[in-house]
Design brief:
- The chain has 232 residues and is mainly alpha-helical.
- The chain has two domains: 1-62, Arc Repressor Mutant, subunit A; 70-221, Orthogonal Bundle (Tetracycline Repressor, domain 2), CATH 1.10.357.
- The chain has helices at residues 2-35, 42-50, 54-60, 64-87, 93-110, 112-126, 130-145, 154-174, 181-192, 197-203, 218-227.
- α7 (130-145) packs across α8.
- The termini are far apart.
Length: 232
């Protein structure tokens, strides 16, 4: 019995150590993918940033594409946990969509590393994002059924949301803009979908609670790491 307890303890410790290392690699990878300043191979840049060997990297991931997919999934999961609980409190699809856009832009303003990762990673950075691929189509379909969005193909409506938001993320990390930029962008997206100007104006200005992420969040850890990097 005692031997089994010792073995169980060793297994648990090993699993916890592996989980910590994987989380560390994801954090450093998010920074590297977001900054994209490496001169050599991406894996070499990552192992240097994480202060681990290439052998350690390959114990967890086979390629940098596999690592990018893992980061994308985790980033999408954290965004979903921030956005969807707020969105689900709203009954009207147009209000849900407006709130989702505002929260995503708010996250980008609060966490420039997140915005940079999405911009530089492109489609790959969005591949595992449930908020984009599952929940946005849900609200678009509901809005069309309710007659809130103009009659158009769902994919057209999807692109009318994602395109401006991606452009907005780039603007937020590259340009000084007024505080109402997210509001005006959200209003424009709603109007492009066929929402009446007065309704779009109202929805884009609904007060939102402050965005809060858990202290152990990958997004917060990566942002802190970038903030503490030496300035060139």
């Amino acid at each position: 019995m005692e031997k089994q307890m010792v073995e169980d303890h060793r297994v648990r410790v090993a699993e916890e150590r592996r989980a910590r290392m994987r989380a560390h690699l994801l954090e450093c990878a998010l920074v590297v993918f977001a900054l994209r300043k490496q001169d050599g191979s991406l894996i070499d840049t990552l192992t240097s940033t994480a202060d681990v060997s290439r052998g350690t990297f390959y114990n967890y991931f086979c390629t940098h594409e596999e690592l990018l997919d893992a980061v994308a999934v985790e980033v999408g999961r954290e965004m979903l946990h921030v956005v969807d609980p707020v969105v689900r409190q709203l009954a009207d699809p147009d209000a849900r969509l407006a709130t989702g856009v505002l929260l995503c832009l708010g996250l980008a303003r609060k966490l420039p590393t997140l915005a940079s990762f999405i911009i530089r990673g492109g489609a790959a950075a969005l591949s595992g994002n449930e908020l984009l691929h599952d929940y946005l189509p849900r609200d678009i379909a509901a809005g069309m059924e309710a007659g809130q969005f103009a009659g158009m193909q769902p994919r057209v409506a999807f692109d009318l949301v994602v395109g401006p938001v991606m452009a907005g993320l780039h603007t937020l990390v590259s340009t000084e803009v007024d505080d109402d930029f997210p509001t005006m962008l959200t209003q424009g997206v709603l109007m492009a979908l066929g929402v009446a100007p007065e309704r779009a104006h109202f929805l884009a200005r609904q007060p939102l609670a402050e965005i809060r992420l858990p202290a152990e969040s990958l997004l917060l850890r990566a942002e802190s790491r970038v903030t503490n990097l030496p300035h060139e």
